[in-house]
Amino acid sequence: TIWDYSILPDEIPYPDILINGYATNDMHYNSVQDAIKRNVTLEQSVFELSQSFIRQVLTPKKGCGHPPPLLLYLDDYMGNEQNEIRETMISSRVIHELSGYYGIGSISYADVVRDIVYGDTREWWFSSNWYEKGDYERAVHPHMGMHISTVWVVGYYLLNLMTTYCSLPRDGNRPNSIVGKSLEKYEYNPQYGLPPLREPNKNLVGNPKRKPRGLPPLLTDELSIEHVTQQWTEESQSNAHLWKSNEECIAEGHSIDEMDHAPLPKPCLLSWVANLERHLDNPKRLEGKLQPFVSSNDGWSAADDNGKLGWVPSSGLGSKFTMNWKSVSQPVKAVTWMIMRSYGEKWAGSTLNVQVYSGDALFASEDIVGFHDKHTSETYNIKMELDGDGVTVGSDLTIKFQLTGGSTFKISGMAICDH
């Protein structure tokens, strides 16, 4: 959601490096239940979600404007949501397979410490404390030692990546270009002490052609060696406008700065996630963020309890508020709420009713549950698709919220967008 809807701080219009560190979430109980509902295995579910994310990030949103960031996957899962060791390594296997296929970076904290942890599963420097109460129990969140160690593992990877890149030979005529990067075919270059060929004009058959531009085809069980080249070539040609070289972009009048730093397009009328932006880290700032759009408010306010900032019904059951936009400047086809679900007496029965209107026409309505029976507080993305073509440019948009069950709720983010 954050990448798809460009929910990034203003000071980061386009990231140079993107690290996906959601392995623990991918292996969580919620992910297991989601896979069961969709009648697929957890490994299939993690694979599909990861591949979708990789392709979304690596596909430019605009040619000559958004070169893909350096995408790195971090495997930090050393939990016991699954008790069988091979099952706990599902995320690791998926990351390894996809990073090899798409040529992205992968870092595994889990592989670094796996033998230490399995050699003594009662330790809790590098994993969770599975015996904290004496008997073996579920514990997926590790302690401070893991977080410190992960910083060192990631730091080492980046240092190794940088030193390797900087030691690659450069094109003598273009000092900022890596040798071979811009060549149209693979060939031998007698540079940097390498000897010249004895028969430089000899034609060696069977040499590979330059690979097609863009991403390889979607990796599926049906993708075959026989047809992969044809599919990749066809996809590259159909999306050629996204995969232009620097030379082609410059020839079209684009500047280097424009190609490197063009901000991501903003597909949303409003988008925010509490604590994500540097200047959205306390109740006063959150209220200032929402104030221009809230047309009426009966009992809702910003609150920060236990370090979890959000928009909450401070007056309890029946609290309501309305958000309004006059003559929207872009279409709205979906609204997404990042909500927290929690447990205990305070959260029992928590339910929020949300209705989306344009004029008198109701485009979507949903009752969103804010509680669960797990002893954790977790964030969920609730996406509501609007009927038909949604709210069109020039139309009014009204969204009504009311707490219809329980005594509390928490909205920790919103995305009101064109898809």
Note the topology.
Blueprint: E1 17-20, H1 23-26, H2 29-37, H3 42-58, E2 70-75, H4 85-88, H5 90-102, E3 105-108, H6 109-119, H7 144-166, E4 170-171, E5 174-178, H8 225-238, H9 246-251, H10 256-261, E6 268-273, H11 283-290, E7 294-298, E8 300-305, E9 308-313, E10 320-325, E11 334-341, E12 351-358, E13 361-369, E14 378-385, E15 397-405, E16 411-417
Parallel strand pairs: 1-2, 2-3
Antiparallel strand pairs: 4-5, 6-16, 7-10, 8-9, 10-15, 11-14, 11-16, 12-13, 12-15
Helix pairs in contact: 2-3, 3-5
What is the chain-wise order of helices and strands?
EHHHEHHEHHEEHHHEHEEEEEEEEEE
- Approximately what portion of the residues adopt beta-strand conformation? 15-25%
Distance N to C terminus: 11 Å
Rg for CA atoms? 25 Å
Outline type? globular
Structure annotation, total helices: 11
For the sheet with most strands, the description reads: 5 strands, antiparallel
Major sheet: arrangement of strands? 7-10-15-12-13
- Total count of strands: 16
Structural class: alpha+beta
Helix proportion: 25-40%
